Amino acid sequence: MAAPLAYTHYGSASITVNSTYGTLDARTNVGHINRNIQIVPGPDAGWGYSVIVYGFLDGDNVTGVLRRGSVQLNGVQFQDGGQLDSLNAPLVFLNNPNNISTSLVTATSFVNCKAHCIYVQNAKNITIDTNVFYNAWVMGIEALSANNINITNNLIIGVY
Hints:
Blueprint: E1 17-19, E2 22-24, E3 37-39, E4 51-54, E5 56-58, E6 65-67, E7 72-74, E8 76-79, E9 91-96, E10 103-106, E11 109-113, E12 118-129, E13 132-136, E14 141-144, E15 147-152, E16 155-157
Parallel strand pairs: 3-8, 4-9, 7-10, 8-11, 9-12, 10-12, 11-13, 12-14, 12-15, 13-16
Antiparallel strand pairs: 1-2, 5-6
């Protein structure tokens, strides 16, 4: 059995904010960030890294093949990813507006992101659920020109 928490933590019987924009639950939560599968940077940690889920046309407009990128991540730890002084994130969904598969990011932790933790641009069909975002330097998640993105039940701690 784990030791009890050492400090006072806010508790409430109900959700903190519930409006037409959505809900915000600021009650106490405990986030598990250590995972067996870890993606970490090399010795040049100031540069970090990015895992890119990308869609593109392989070949010309007539005979080319549309490559649709998707990913299923469950129980992965992204540690010290992204790139300082940029908007690069450890996990990037890019140029995939015709994707018919759903990408899933579940039970995953993002620790010390150098910019955003997840960045989505011109992509669709992404579910981000039950993840922990700890110490993001810019933003936990940013989505631009995105369609059908479900962001639910995530814990965000310490976004600067």
